[in-house]
Structure formats: C-alpha cells, structure tokens
Amino acid sequence: MLQGSFKEQFPKNYRPLITELEAFWNNDIYSLFKEFAEDILQKYDLRFGIPLWTERYGWTYRIGKSGVYLVKGIRIGKTGFIVDGLEIDTREKYPLLLAYIEEIYQQNKEEFRKKIADKNARQAERNKARIAREKQEFSSIQSDILLDKYNIYCWPEKLDINKLNKLYMLDAKGIHDEVLADEIGLTLYLRCKYGKEDMERMERYVIRCHGCGRELAGQADFRQCSCGRQYSYREYRRSFRRNNMPTGAAAHIFAAFIKQWDAARSYNEKIVLIDTLLHEFHLSLISGATHRPVAMNFIDGTRSHVEQIISNLAGNL
After folding, report:
1. Has residue 130 been placed in a domain?
2. Domain check: are 94 and 10 in the same one?
3. Which of 187, 201, 185, 150 is nearest to 263 (CA)?
C-alpha cells in the first residue's frame, strides 16, 4: 500500500486512476470497491462519475447516470471508502451499504428519472438549434463542396472479438499463434496510435487528411487538402467520436500500450500487453472512470454486448 492519506497521495493536480486505488488500499478493500461498482451497474444501471476535488477531503466520487447523480461526495479513506457517513472497511459492513443504496434509490428514483428526462429534453432543444445553425452554414459553402471527396473517413478498424476469443482459447491449450497475436495487437496499436495523435492534433485545431495523411490547419471549419479531399473540422471531430476513437481519461493507457508494443518482440511479451489492456477495459467498465467503457473504443458492438464480452474475458485473465 501507499503511505500517507488519500489527499496527500493524490493532490489537486493529480486525479487518481482506478488502478492507483488498488495500490492505495489492501486487496480486500479494493475488491469491495470493485464489487460495489459492479453491483450498482447491474442492479440500477449506475456508474461512478469522474472524481471531483474538494478542499476538505481531496478527490471524491459520485454515482449516477447521464450526468445526474444519486450519491455525491463518496470519500476515500486509508482503511475504506465512506458513502454518506457509512464507512465500508470490512466485508461485514458491505450489506449495510447495499441496503442504504437500495433505500435511497427507491426514495429518489422518480425524481432521479425526471432529472435525466429534463436534461435530455434541454439537450434536444440545443441540438435542434445547432442543426438549424449548421444547415445555414453549410448552404453558404455548398458551391465549393465536392460530395465525392467531402468528409470521407477511414478510421482504423475495431477488434474482431471472435479472433480475440480464438487467441485466448489457443493460448489456454498452450498453442502460441504468433500471427493471430500480431494481428490483434496491431489492431489495438493502430486504434491507440491514431486516437492519441488525432486528438492531440484537434486540440491544436488541426486534422489529418484520410487520403494522404497531411495535416490541415486553420481556423475555418471548411478544410481542403492538396490531394483533393475536403473536410469540415466539426464533422471530423464528430466522426472521431462516432467511431469511438480512443482518447480522454484513458489516454495514459493508450500511450503506454503504444510504447510497449513497439518494443515487444516475443509472443509472451505481446500476450501480456494484450492481457494488460483487456484488464484496463474491465477496470473502466466497473469503475465508471469514463462515462463510456474504454472497451467501446476497441471492440465492435453495442454497449451491452461489449460489456458482456469484457466481463466474460475478465474471468479468464
């Protein structure tokens, strides 16, 4: 375990990762915290939100859905985690926590659902206004657009889960399919690499041409490459998100995988890296460190399908 209080270990300029909670606590408490995350997800479809900093307690956690929170201010102590004054530092106390969550969920579920519905309605109104504005903007540049060259994207493909299952089935039998391991690792690598690099570009208001790879800078939304391809910067970002390209709170995971995969040579080194990334997928799923599980960045399918895949694989890692 790490030494010092949670606030000392993770000051305001250092938001903790879910994996660092494992190092902060002993295994029993960390297991309870993971179990709690899984229980609220399965029973109530609730997730942990991104931690918030407070001057008194340091980083605190919330659980909720769609940016609406049922419980706020979950604190991390040296010997356990505290939910509205109830400290969970032993397994014997865990049923009390579950009973408490059930009680407040039943008491607040109608108001909770209404807040989510109201938030979604406000977002729908904003979307309606945005669509009208963008339609007007598009009409002003329509004469310059070549439809067969406009906003044509080619993002790295996602992982074929059948191939991943095959790799692990063979590995369990002691069969090292190096070609398959390379194919899977390269798929993960390319998603990580282009997700990381394209987000860094977009933060500078730059995009990458999917035809020739040139960087297209500027302040205007409309971009034209010398190869003939044309883009809307706004639509480029949306396509990036629609394709679930890796970025955001889990960027450190992707950066580490890129560096380590470049250096990996043997089958064992590569399978360990794939294992490690899948483990991170599972931690993201149960922790709510991001609103969308990291696995969605890499595996094709609906959210429920991807969550089930990762939960099944996690039992075999």
Report:
1. no
2. yes
3. 185
